Fold:
Amino acid sequence: MRCFIAIPLPKEIQDEVRKTKVKDDIALVSYPKEELHLTLKFLGDVPVSEVKKISESLSKIKFKNFKTNLGKIGFFPKKKGYVKVVWAGLTPKRKIIELKNMVDDALVWRFNREKDYEPHITICRVKEIKNDKRFRDTFNRTLEGSFSINCFRLMKAEFTENNVIHTLIKEYK
Structure:
């Protein structure tokens, strides 16, 4: 079962992330706005027999609610002329990274720690860019909006022919 740990986004934040207008000469794979989330940790393929232990480990995490703001749009990888993912940054990052580190600590028995975590919301995946300058101009903006983080979720991802479906396994508050 392919799993990940994510923070859900309120509807108004989903709407703000989807406001960016994309030019016709940019081939992208977008997700339905309801599928947008802030990934804390991608677990990959997990045996069904381990999901309960993962869930129990995550349930021990205690954190206080905090607020974050949408930020500037960025790209992975970060080198010019080559982009695979368009994402929305978040500020401040510190509390998100602290929560992510708590997740790493809770799951250290099974998963490696991530060293270069960048809190972000994936907007879309890039298939082809015909004009790099036009592409970057399209996404040269800072998103507006803030939201409270008061929970995180263990999710399952299932890939269909045209989409990915995210299913809640358990929510942690």
User: Anything to note?
Assistant: The mean pLDDT is 90. The longest helix spans residues 94-106. The longest strand covers residues 66-76.
